[in-house]
Amino acid sequence: MIVETFVVSLFATNCYLVGCPETKKAALIDPGDEAALLLAAAERLGLTLEVILLTHGHIDHVGAVAEVLERTSCKVCAHRDEVEVLRTLGLQARLFGLSLPDDVKVDVWLSEGDEVRLGSLAFRVLHTPGHTPGSICFYHDGVVFSGDTLFRESVGRTDLPGGSHRSLLASIRSKLLALPDEVQVYPGHGEPTTIGDERRLNPFL
After folding, report:
1. Is residue 107 classed as helix, strand or coil in its secondary structure?
2. Is the pTM of this model over 0.90?
């Protein structure tokens, strides 16, 4: 699997360009900003963007969706419980003093256990509510993209509307810590880690 990481926006959000090495079909996970940079990277690597995967609907993870869609025919995928969060993008922008974003229109509503196929790759959807009601992680073959659910030696904040610390910890323990220790974790912010390291070192767990 091809994985390129881009740290974008004022929030230092990790956006991931993920591609199938056989078919060159690709996805953007959480394009929070700097659409031109992301599109240029896909072109440089010879990848064809087919889908945008959203771990959740906060503005720092979806800010470049509209601009990417202007230049591609990507389908946008998010969890069905994230509808209300996506409806508050204008409020989120005002809260942080940002310009109002375009609405994010979701083409495919996902649920726990669904698979998103990308060439020879298949990403399994893990519903991990807590940071937001519809937060999800994407798992494939020893790699999990955890959004703002799990970070290196930390966990996602739960003080924003729809957040629940109890639900967040339950999600991590039942869905992410159920994965093998060697699974690589690509979080929404900060450095990558592994499930084993978080099992041993994460003070919140």
Report:
1. coil
2. yes
